[in-house]
Amino acid sequence: MNWKKTFVVLVIVAMSLFILGCAEKQPAPTPTPESKPAPEATPSPEAKVPEKIVIGGTLSLSGKYANEGQMSLWGIQAALKWLNDVNGGIDIGGKKVKVEFKYYDDEAKKETVQSLYDRLITVDKVDVLLAPYSSGLTLAAAPIADKNGKVYMSHGGASDRIFEQGYTYVVQTLSPASKYQTGALDMVKAIDPTAKRVAFVYEDSEFSKAVFKGAKEYAEQLGFEVVFDKTYPRNPTDLTPLLSEMKAAEPDIILGGGHFADGQLLATQLAELKINAKLVSIIVAPALPKFYDALGVKAEGIVGPGQWEVGVKYSPEAAKAKGIEYFGPTQDEFMQYFKEVAGEDKTPSYHAAEAGAAILAIAKAIENAQSTDSDAIRNAFNNLHMITFFGEFKIDPTTGKQLGHEMVLFQWQGGKKVIIWPPEAATGEPYYPIPTWEEKEQGKMATK
Amino acid sequence: MVFFEQLAGNLLYGIILGAVYGLATMGLSQIFGVLKIVNVGHGAFIMVGAYVAYWMFVLYSVNPILSIPVALVIGLALGLGIFYIVIRRLIGAPELASLLATFGIGIFIEEVAKFFWGPDHRGFSWNIGQVDFGITLIPNTKLLAFFSSVIIALILYMLFQRTRIGAAIRAVVEDREGAMVCGIDVSRIYAMSFGIGIAMTVIGGILLTLFIPVGINPYMGGEYTLKAFVIAVLGGLGSPWGAFIGGFIFGLLENGSYTILGLIPGVEPFSLTRFVAFSALLVILLVKPTGLMGGE
Question: B25 CB near a chain A CB, below 8 Å?
């Protein structure tokens, strides 16, 4: 019977600790979540310089976003390498302060994300938060960050909805979802005015719905006819029913996708059902080399939007020409640091670049604010206009949504990703219309 | 006309998908039927099968059909290994213990797979043409998946019905003590059943890659675990044949309901197909709580 007593005692102790913990949390000053403009930052000269600056966040190192999570981590580590080893840290009051990244694996689960951000804020007491990957996870932890008054930087949450909740401290590095498929529409309009029929086939998820809501509005503006607009649920096994229906709608252009696995499946089944179109643009999946590894020749000609691609032309010189400050490593330097942390055989995907760029933006904002105070940093973001290897950074002051950054469009041509749009960033000509599935089975590549 | 063509096409795909679902579920039912253990880590073994197909294809250019014997050997070895290390100790233990153990085994296998092969979604392209059914095109790989599933299910049926081992397994399912009295080595039957169950699941994973040759990753099994449970319950837990037929029904419902739901204006038919499939499960269970082929 003795263990029972011990158990009861343990439970009582645990309960009282829990209650104490709650009680302690209660009186902590929590800034009001209303969307008020952040107060003016006035860093007092005697403000004490911190020993180090800790950026905290979760990454999906396992679970369904494990791919993207690993890429993000490498990108962050590469950016930190430049920040700490080359730049010496963040300059606050003339002293270089080193930056640390504290992270947990969120297993791509919303429940995990929420408790981990709570932990990062209350236990680890980090200075700034980096949001998790994906719009769904970013939305899940946003209220926790905002309620606790921590700047919350989205590097992989593109959905426009994140920035329509009236949060004060949420800021974005990457282009919002509504811009993902507009480039493909712009391009088709420019090179083939006869292609009018557009089909949308996409995942029923936060992010893709935002992408295709934006795309649909834009398509109608440009005078396209939307002949098919349907979603598929998460983790589909077979898209045949949906695709056979789409085939009957005879689209000229197919825009679709969601995340990686379903994008791969979409391309595979388009091939199986021999659904040909002049252009197929899929979000997310084609960006990763594994897409081409899995599909082989079938991937030829498939187009995808990217936040960033190896080879985009953002450089200190280009920034100078535009009269905007350049911050951080050059693209070549970033590639070099990336390979140092990830291994020689790895190439950064845009997930790595946007995560790295988010770290750089946080660092620059802290430096401009000369403080680690959340309101001061948030205010500094409003006035931050710079170019990094990832592209321009300029946010909408009220919502925190990214306005400066531009998407690029790439196409798989002869086993390589070629940037084809916009013309000023392009490294090659678009191959249009793309080869048919039958031609590809004969081994035809999307090269001239 | 277009409506009926699409419906027929979708049902054709549904039958093929259903056969693969069925085979991928038989192992789960088999193990439950004999050992009374619910293998919550079921999906992990499907994933192992998918990787066997992938690596055999990529490294040795062996097509997935010829990889089936390899999967059989790997599945048996894996199943017997896990049986003697873990499951043996759990026979007759409280259900929670075996649930936790199989759950843990599933996670362990997934993480080992991630450690060695990384989290990438892999895939391969095995193009062997397609058959034009007029209403729809079906790739030969999918037809092969269908016929292999049916043939393997038949072979298993013969094994259970026509061999001494099959008779012994059935005897253990019916009455463990009785079987023991008749001189059947029950613990060996348990080991064999678990081994065969896992091997079937691994083979199911191979056939699945014939249906979908992409999206092969360490965590792909989760989705199939869920479906396998539904199918197993649909067919009557414990009855592998019920599971096979349950697979057909599930595949047909999932694909067939799409076209019909599409007639309702203003709905996203695809998001409702799973709802329909699961509602059908509820209805069947209300009418026959033991599942289609379940006993009393």
Answer: no
Contact A181, A131 (CB under 8 A): no
User: Is the domain of A164 the same as that of A185?
Assistant: no
Single pTM value for the model: 0.78
* Pair (A162, A75) in one structural domain: yes
Q: Report whether pLDDT(A25) > 50.
A: no
CATH code assigned at A71:
3.40.50.2300
Q: Which chain B residue shows the shortest CA-CA distance from A260?
A: B121
Q: Is residue A369 part of a domain?
A: yes
Domain residues for A148? 52-175+311-393
Place of tokens 């196409």: A411
pLDDT score recorded for residue A375: 95
**Contact call for B127 and A441, based on CB within 8 A:** yes
Report the top-level CATH class of B2-117+130-287: mainly alpha
Query: Does B219 contact A66 at a Cβ distance shorter than 8 Å?
Result: yes
CB atoms A238 and B125 under 8 Å? no
Interface with chain A: mutation pick from B61, B117, B121, highest number of A CBs within 10 Å: B121
Residue A333: pLDDT over 50: yes
For residue A363, which of A100, A41, A160 has the smallest C-alpha distance?
A: A100
Spatial neighbors of A339 by CB under 8 A, at least 6 apart, are A346
Same domain (yes/no): A133, A206 = no
Q: Is the pLDDT of residue A237 over 90?
A: no
Question: Chain B closest CA to A86's CA: distance in Å?
Answer: 31
- The verdict on a CB contact (< 8 Å) between A238 and B213 is no
Residues of A in contact with B142 (CB under 8 A): 272
Instruction: Verify that A374 and A321 share a domain, yes or no.
Output: yes
Residue A419 inside a domain? The answer is: yes
Domain count along chain A:
2
Could you tell me if A436 and A254 are in contact, meaning their C-beta atoms sit under 8 angstroms apart? no
Which whole number is the average pLDDT over B187-197? 94
Say if the Cβ atoms of B214 and A241 lie within 8 Å: no
Express each pLDDT in B22-65 by its tens digit.
Answer: 999 999 999 999 999 999 999 999 999 999 999 999 999 999 99
Q: Are residues A270 and A192 in the same domain?
A: yes
Mean pLDDT throughout A158-166? 91
* B133/A contact by beta carbon, under 8 A: no
| Domain match, A375 and A424 both | no
SS3 content of chain B, % helix, strand, coil (to 5): 75, 5, 25
Q: Where are the domains of chain B?
A: 2-117+130-287
Residue A15 belongs to some domain of the structure: no
**A57-73 pLDDT per residue, tens:** 999 998 888 888 999 99
- Per the CB < 8 Å rule, is B268 touching A230? yes
Query: Are A331 and A388 in the same domain?
Result: yes
Query: What distance in Å separates the CA atoms of residue A7 and residue A35, rounded to the nearest whole number?
Result: 47
The verdict on A272 and A134 lying in the same domain is no
First to last CA, chain B: 44
pLDDT (average), residues A410-432 = 90
* ipTM for the predicted complex: 0.87
Element (H, E) at B137: strand B137-139
> Who contacts A193 (Cβ-Cβ below 8 Å, separation ≥6)?
none
A298 has a chain B CB within 8 A of its CB:
yes
Nearest CA in chain A to B218: A63
Query: Do the domain assignments include residue A17?
Result: no
pLDDT (0 to 100) of residue A425: 77
Asked if the Cβ–Cβ distance from B214 to A441 is below 8 Å, we say no
Ramachandran region of residue B32, left (φ > 0), alpha (ψ -120 to 50) or beta? Answer: alpha
